[in-house]
# Entry
Amino acid sequence: MTIHRFSSLASTNQTLWELLDQGSPEGTVVISNAQTAGRGQWGRQWESSLGGLYLSLALKPNWAATSSGDLTIATAWGIATTLRHHHIPLQLKHPNDLFLEGRKLGGILTETRIQKGVITAAVIGVGINWTNSVPEVGINLQSYWQRQKIIPQISSLEMLESITLEGISLGYQQLLTASLDSFLPSYQDLLLKN
# Structure
């Protein structure tokens, strides 16, 4: 795994696509301290100020184009499962939002390139609020721990990076070795109930 770190970028996904165009392999990661043009699902702007986690990971799954949504679901499930192992009671809002105490903690943006009906490359972008300022509908991990008066099991942004990459890998490996059906019930259990 090769990790490229930046102090500020327009978008980690955009930079990773540029690196892929230059020949970077699967497993390449881009991490930035801030983004000036971060985006979420449906082209919505994602606030990306200093203090948050903004990373993108390149995959080359060579799956049918119809499986692109599975990558988002697998990533959300993997990250939520991994963070829950660190006592963060994360929930999911289908298909790509990470929620904590009913407020948005983060999001996932999956982008794919398709040739002849096959996904030849995918970029999984993840943003998670750590200490950054957030809108009223959001939450960051530091404020959550302070309100709960608990000692966090995740002690640094670098540790959160590692756990997030572990979560993406967990979901991706599950898709590679089993199928979406193998963890779909677990994913559904994590969904916010309206």
Q: What stands out?
A: The longest strand covers residues 103-115. Residues 93 and 191 are 6 Å apart (CA to CA).
